[in-house]
Amino acid sequence: MEAETNEPEVQSFDELDLSPVMRRAVAKAGFTKPSPIQGELIPLALDGMDVIGQARTGTGKTAAFAIPILEQLDPLEECRDPQAIIVVPTRELADQVAVETQRLAEGVPTEVAVLSGGKNMNKQLRQLENGVQVVVGTPGRLHDHLQRGTLRTNNVWCVVLDEADRMLDIGFRPQIERILRKCPRDRQTLLLSATLPPTVQRLAESYMHKPTVIDCCKNEMAVETIEQRYFTVAQDRKGELLERLLDREKPEQAIVFCRTKRGTDRLYRKLARSYDACGSMHGDMQQRERDRVLQSLRDRKLKILVATDVVGRGIDISTISHIFNYDVPQDCDDYVHRVGRTGRMGRDGVAYTFVVPGEGDVLTSIEQRINKELIRDTIEGFEPMPKPQPTAVEDAAGEPVVKKKLNPMHRKIKRRRL
């Protein structure tokens, strides 16, 4: 891999080598100043280089790879086969990326097809037959089309792997490798990932040509514009606390995260009795219903969405002002992605996490992950719960619990005892 770039921050889209049509589209889409990932990735991509971009969600990375692709597309009349393939981990993110790409193509007719599971296969086949320039899809469905011979890749000059770490985590490596092998060897490859674990690095070494690495995650694990707080609460009082908080905060729009599908349904029914414009979403729902719920959220017809981690990644809705972790996520990365649904593109946001007795270690792990202590909040009737008594082992040994060893890049965070 090439050394990381260290370019000065780009202050305006006028500094980038964009066409007048694209500059107008960018302005109409509401972009004023390039985000760090946009300022660094766009020039490299326009130069045809392979790039590994490390950036968290909510930083404008979709536009960072969509803009250079759109700038270099041949008209449909000249090439009816896909020229760029964007691979993403989820159906929801595929829809989101396609919408953003079409928005940035303002003024230039551009055919974008979404190939993901849960969508009508015949409709996808018709789109491909009629001609498309950009394909956005999930690894499984893209692989299906390759096996059928319905996705032609001879003219693909750019492949984007968005949220590569997530795709490898959930077992899509074989499908991703098949997609990459089917595309021309002289293609451009852009890999976007919040983290760069060994699995991602090995993929890059095998399928990318001297990629330049840009890291926009430095010092950004805890999003500065997101206020992060927690409550200690008994399990059977969570619902009451949530309603009190909703009444106090009056969120513009909020997502309430639950751990299970059953818990999501149960909490939704409870909230729907007291609050209008409330919806729910989880993995057991039909794709058509999930799409309807998300569109209602984007159209601001929904004010409160109760959901599992199915919406923890890839949903970019700037009006989400509050996140409520009704159930503490067991995986620290899930916490980062849940909280990342608010505070999008520099807007303010607030996240509340409900912690029950016995979950102190989980809270500590989250704080170590983001390198920041969450603020303990209170509300009348929900004062901080007393600390639990030491365990029998601690009594017998007379020693405190051994602190977890931290990465030397982290500052020490005191172990939570709830």
Automatic annotation (TrEMBL):
One of its GO terms (molecular function) is nucleic acid binding. The keyword Zinc does not apply. Residues 11-39 form the DEAD-box RNA helicase Q domain. Pfam families: DEAD, Helicase_C. The keyword Signal does not apply. One of its GO terms (cellular component) is cytosol. Its EC number is 3.6.4.13. The gene is cshA. Residues 225-390 form the Helicase C-terminal domain. A motif (Q motif) lies at residues 11-39. It is an enzyme of class 3 (hydrolase). This is DEAD-box ATP-dependent RNA helicase CshA. Belongs to the DEAD box helicase family. Keywords: ATP-binding, Helicase, Hydrolase, Nucleotide-binding. Residues 42-214 form the Helicase ATP-binding domain.
